[in-house]
Design a protein that fits this description.
- The protein has ten helices and four strands, in the order αααααβααβαβαβα.
- It has helices at 3-14, 24-29, 34-38, 56-59, 61-73, 88-91, 100-116, 153-170, 183-200, 220-227, and strands spanning 78-80, 125-130, 174-180, 206-210.
- Helix 7 packs parallel to helix 8 (153-170) and helix 8 packs across helix 9.
- The longest helix is centred in the C-terminal third of the chain and has 18 residues, at 153-170.
């Protein structure tokens, strides 16, 4: 068992660990402009980056760092990176697939720096936030073609590997698979994590949060399969 897993397991045994809150609403509260999202670096980018919250780790790291500090100040123990949409699949909407490694590494380093500057004695951990992407492996995006998939399992694993490898390089303690609505997507992320662990000889704690759509306790993909 790795030192990080031992520390995390011990903290869970001895404390109720509080996860930080939403990143998106905190960003919205700051009423940022297009200039904030583009910065100098992306001033001539052909696609409007407004709303691409993840890119703020590069263009307004001060804002993201301040949000992390506010959650630590509120008493959180697990601080998540600003990387919910930092796969090449999700960033393709903005034409920024080429910077996903930098996005994830920088976001992880931002949290790591804020956590490391904290002087109190409570347990603090950096969670690499991994969102579900805007694609689904279990359901077709085309109503008229239920067998169609926009990408396959191997492509999803590859996208997750790229993201999670950069999060690990940036210094996260664990991985949080967030807002899972397709269990096959989650499986691809877990496969990517296991491959990275084997390659780097590391042991990553993994947390999973799911989207349950009704009182039956099913995810959206389970409902989709039931209807096919």
């Amino acid at each position: 068992m790795s030192d990080t897993r031992q520390a995390f397991t011990a903290a869970l045994r001895d404390h109720i660990l509080v996860l930080d809150g939403a990143m998106g609403t905190e960003i919205q509260r700051r009423e940022l402009s297009k200039v904030d999202f583009h910065g100098d670096r992306f001033g001539d980018h052909p696609i409007d980056l407004t709303g691409n919250n993840d890119i703020l780790s590069l263009t307004r790291p001060d804002v993201i760092r301040d949000i992390h500090r506010s959650y630590i100040g509120a008493g959180a123990h697990i601080i998540c990176t600003n990387t919910f949409n930092s796969t090449r699949i999700a960033q393709a909407d903005y034409g920024t697939e080429h910077i996903v490694t930098e996005l994830n590494t920088q976001a992880a380093q931002l949290v790591r720096s804020v956590v490391d500057e904290c002087t109190d004695q409570r347990p603090l951990f950096v969670a690499g936030a991994v969102g579900p992407t805007n694609q689904t492996l279990s359901m077709s995006p085309r109503v008229e073609d239920p067998g169609y998939r926009a990408l396959d399992f191997a492509e999803m694993v590859s996208a997750y590997r790229e993201q999670i490898s950069a999060l690990v390089a940036g210094g996260v303690d664990l991985i949080l698979l967030e807002t899972v609505f397709d269990t096959l997507n989650a499986k691809a992320a877990i496969v990517a994590i296991r491959q990275i662990e084997a390659e780097r000889d590391i042991d990553l704690p993994v947390m999973i949060s799911g989207t349950v759509s009704d009182r039956s306790g099913r995810t959206l993909s389970e409902i989709g399969r039931a209807h096919v």
